[in-house]
Amino acid sequence: MLNLNNIAKTYQTEKIETIALKNINLNINRGEFISIMGPSGCGKSTLLNIMGLLDEPSDGEVKVNGKSITSYHDKEMASLRNSKIGFIFQSFHLIQDLRVIDNVELPLLYRKISAKERRRLATAALERVGLKARTSHFPSQLSGGQQQRVAIARAIVGKPELLLADEPTGNLDSHMGNEIMQILESLHKDDKTTIVMVTHDDELAKRTERTIRVYDGQLIH
Ligand code: ADP
Ligand code: ADP
């Protein structure tokens, strides 16, 4: 569903050039659960951002469902991203002054969906992560693990084909981390969601189908 062909990414800041990625060739098949591992600063977040169409490569080609997106404009990229991709981050990225349910509805605001339907879909997504009883809470009233479950509900509310998770358990203790992993495993098994997860945890990586290792901006096989 996603092909990265000869991807490179260079960051240019003043006089310093950082090569974050080079020679990246990677195919992600529909339904896979993939983990990405590698030391800090090796390019994992950059890779995930390119997969998620949040960032454009400096070189190479990204194909979504067989179609090159090189010629896409920002607006087309945003629309593709909003309809097909969900994101989860280490630090949850919830909006603190919105209630749980309103956080989960956010991705649907870009779509032509009635308020009633938005509420129905968000409630179902919260039910999916076991948080239906917390819809009216604010994020600060929840534990870290619960906040991450809200973030997962927000990521899946639009039924994305691809779920990208950047160290989703990095801020959680192992018990809560395991709960989050179980939800991801269930989304993979039961809902057939394709998942790519960055992790530093070997035990979690072993539970995925394939581990990709990044070192110094390159994939090592
Ligand atoms: P990781 O997620 O593995 O920690 P990153 O993808 O965040 O690695 O970063 C890879 C390299 O690119 C690092 O050297 C980092 O400092 C650099 N980098 C990442 N984002 C930027 C940016 N926006 N501007 C400049 N350099 C960046
Ligand atoms: P993590 O290691 O938890 O993945 P980082 O703290 O490395 O996250 O990066 C957070 C964000 O900051 C990333 O999206 C990355 O693009 C950006 N970033 C990382 N390194 C740099 C840098 N040297 N200059 C500017 N932005 C950066």
UniProtKB/TrEMBL annotation:
InterPro entries: AAA+_ATPase (IPR003593), ABC_transporter-like_ATP-bd (IPR003439), ABC_transporter-like_CS (IPR017871), MacB-like_ATP-bd (IPR017911), P-loop_NTPase (IPR027417). SMART domains: AAA. It comes from the Bacteria. One of its GO terms (cellular component) is transmembrane transporter complex. The keyword Transport applies. The keyword Transport applies. GO terms for molecular function: ATP binding; ATP hydrolysis activity; transmembrane transporter activity. Keywords: ATP-binding, Nucleotide-binding, Transport. It comes from Aliikangiella coralliicola. This is ABC transporter ATP-binding protein. Residues 2-220 form the ABC transporter domain. Belongs to the ABC transporter superfamily. Macrolide exporter (TC 3.A.1.122) family.
